[in-house]
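Task: complex structure prediction.
Instruction: return structure tokens for all chains below.
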Amino acid sequence: MNNFPDIASIRNDFPILNEIVNGKQLVYFDNAATTQKPRIVLDALSGYYEHYNANIHRGIHHLAEKATGAFEDSRRRLQKFINAELSEEVIFTYGTTDSINLVAQSYGRKFLKEGDEIIISTMEHHSNIVPWQMLCEEKGCVLRVIPINDEGELLMDEYEKMLSEKTKFVSVVHVSNSLGTINPVAEIIEKAHKVGAKVLLDGAQASSHFTIDVQALDVDFYALSLHKIYGPTGMGILYGKKELLEAMPPYRGGGEMIKEVTFEKTTYNELPYKFEAGTPNIADVVAAKYAIDYVDTLGKPNISKHENDLLLYATEAVREIPGLRIIGQAKEKVSVLSFVVDGMHHQDIAVILDNQGIAVRTGHHCTQPLMSRLGILGTTRASFAVYNTIEEIDGLIKGLHKAKKMLG
Amino acid sequence: MTINEAQDELIEDFELFDDWESKYEYIIDLGKQFPPLEEQYKTEDNIIKGCQSRVWLNAFMDGDLLKFEADSDAIIVRGLVSMLVKVLSGHTPEEIAKADLYFMEKVGLHQHLAQTRSNGLASMLKQMRTYGIAYQATN
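Output:
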């Protein structure tokens, strides 16, 4: 392992890592569910409330101007983070789920009609299945699903066969939360565009691991959540190409999103405000900028390298657990290690690990159709972030041996 | 044995354990010893789905007493289920509906009841009480 940069000093940035859980030092391996927050983000949150809490965009006073400035700074920072061309292409939402719902409800209801086909994949999170099912039910569209192989990779030939002039929308996950698979999204987008379909990528799991460039991808919509990138919960973004967002109707009404209201007719505000009805989640938006700064200061290539080293080490180390089978063995993977162990229920494994201070996630990971395809009820999932260490993985292996002994 | 006597007996059993390992080894043992629910009762009607483990609960009247049989696919949950059955099964519907369950908290296992979505245990307890109320009404 290289000594990037200095994991001990990175760990010092995350106060929660000092927590004692069930009498043991916390080992946090549930990063695909949410990452922990560095001190700089926590300070930004309290700093906002202590020094410049005010409602944004309309106030003519010092605090309102300062809060508005910080809020819009954050938008520009996120624009840069995903390399969007324009800041108004970045819409603040409650998170990835909210972003996908926005597209399904606004773009989908306006532009999709009976018989149109929407393509998703077998490895989608429920949040990228249900909004499209709701739309299909309402509009009579047809949902098609890209199958996968046993390693957990999309069958691209099958995808290609599915594409036709009927295909109007493709919504797939950039990185699988259950398996860690990195999907060939550039190819997916290119092929969808050839038949005139628009593409949304669910970037919830991708955005903390590697650089996202929406212009290079030529993706139409990109959804992500900040809490998975060391930022606050309850906020995310929807990126959309300007011409598409312009053509889409607002789907929530209220303050902020209007230009002029009379009882006869209301005209809507311009982008991005058209999609941001009501007082937004100002504090979390403001703090998000600091999370992004933190990630960029460490450098995503460095983060990826460290996480990948952890994944390789863990993948090798778990082989010593008898009866353990890794679920998701794609060639291209992020630092997610999902597995099942013969004769042991994942819930039992999690309880035994928790008693040793080790936090993992177990179950179907909100991907029930994927679990059915793989013929399992769920997995135990350890997911690694920048602050995790080889020693912690050794602790996990020890913990699994203990579980094996107690449950076997 | 009343519901509270059964609870107190469990609390006494758990006082013997001074670390988490022996406590959970005991729960795992309870799970292993608990008779499995016959397959015919593992129906869609009887299943209580948690996010992670599945619990089945079968309820029936035996004279004036409401009885429970249950199962789970996870062994620790099975052990916890066996304790709830031990405490609540074989009492009148009224007693079950009104029971004050304090033993889980006393033995330091209340977090398993708090994880409502994950293990189905809280839903099972709620279902047991609902049976109590329902059978009370029909009697």
